[in-house]
Amino acid sequence: MSKPYDIFLSHSGAQKDFVEQLFTELKRQYGHYSVFFDKDSIKHGEQISPNILEHAKTCKLAVAVLSEEYLTRRKPPMLELAASYTASKNGKGVPCLLPVFLDLKPEHAKSSEKQKIWKITWEEWKRNETMSDRPEPRTNRVEPTVWREALVKLLDTRGPVYKPDENEYKSAFFAKKVAGVIADKLDELSKTKVSYKATNCSDSASMEHLSKDSIRMTAYADSPHVDQMEDASTTGETQMEFEWTGLKLSEGDENVEERERKISEREISINKRQRLVEVRERNVGERERNVGERERNVGERERNVGGRERDVGERERNVKTR
């Protein structure tokens, strides 16, 4: 499997057109973040369901584009949500779940009556699955209890809401808004306080080769995401293995955390500057189009005035003849 994506787009087939717009907007404006979109990210010859669920469990930000179809039309969207939720709950991935209320309002999604209907549908799927002659793989099984937990967790998170009755929230504009929210959330996640503990570095020789070793990333209890990680000790501290990216530390360097924080701040600053440049580029393009339109209008007026001048000249000649 390829490396984990920054963003995972979970959706129903009924919302495919909007999600395509969102995917295009993310790639155009925030190309430094990788995006998993099934239509684009699964190569020919790759298995669909295992790839989707694996990336749903390993992404940094799982985005659920909510609708009635998402919850009750077919199993895959809820399987994706459950995979992301379980990974987040177990501290094995997915630091954040983000709902996007496209064809489902938050108040409707939180309605106990609605949730009862959805649960009945899920339980019916479960019964049909149990009675089937072909048992589903464990990862593809309907789990109503887990699904409900995942939905409750998701709905407890604030997310963008589509308002079709407001002109500025037409589908394309909403896609731009959602893309900005996603980028801001990833920027925020990158600022999460982490400290690093080098392993296998008891002497200066191993310090010289630290870039080739694995190191431990430790998120302390004051991290806003520590509740999503599995406790490793009574202090509320947890450790996760990840690969060192090649930044070589000199012997005796005790300021790694500060350097890492400054790098993160610089990356965030670059991202914001990039977005500002893109906004300015769009504004310049809009002004250029406006100038072109005015030039065409002026040309049309000049032609009209010229035509009127010819008509007046013709009338003057007719008067003289008479």
TrEMBL record:
- Broadest EC class assigned to this enzyme: hydrolase
Q: Which Pfam families match?
A: TIR_2 (PF13676)
The reaction(s) catalysed by this protein are: NAD(+) + H2O = ADP-D-ribose + nicotinamide + H(+)
Q: Which GO terms describe its molecular function?
A: NAD+ nucleosidase activity, cyclic ADP-ribose generating
Specify whether Hydrolase is a keyword of the entry.
Answer: yes
Q: What is its EC number?
A: 3.2.2.6
Keyword terms = Hydrolase, NAD
Q: Name one GO biological process term.
A: signal transduction
**Where is each TIR domain found?**
3-154
Q: Which SUPFAM superfamilies match?
A: Toll/Interleukin receptor TIR domain
Q: Annotated region Disordered: where?
A: 281-322
What is this protein's name?
ADP-ribosyl cyclase/cyclic ADP-ribose hydrolase
